[in-house]
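Encode chain A's predicted structure.
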Amino acid sequence: MVLSNVVRVASQLNSAGTRSGLLGIRQIRRKYTYRSGALKPMPYIIPFGLLGVVFTVIPGLLIGAAISRNMANFLEENDLFVPSDDDDDDD
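Encoded structure for chain A:
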């Protein structure tokens, strides 16, 4: 957002040509200030910590493993994927 404003101001300065001074520059607004320039209050942050990471990652891994196991079973039952037996030298 800020980068796009900087590029827009720079293009306005280039198109202004020989304007005296810096009349083409506008103030760049940021997400943490009001129009008056006053700082906005800090947003409410929910602390997750390590427990939140564990409760997010573990179910994701279990669900992903279940989906991949079911897909591998489906492919093997329909003879679309058959593991190679190159390691077995029983012949």
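Residues 17-21 have pLDDT under 50 and may be disordered.
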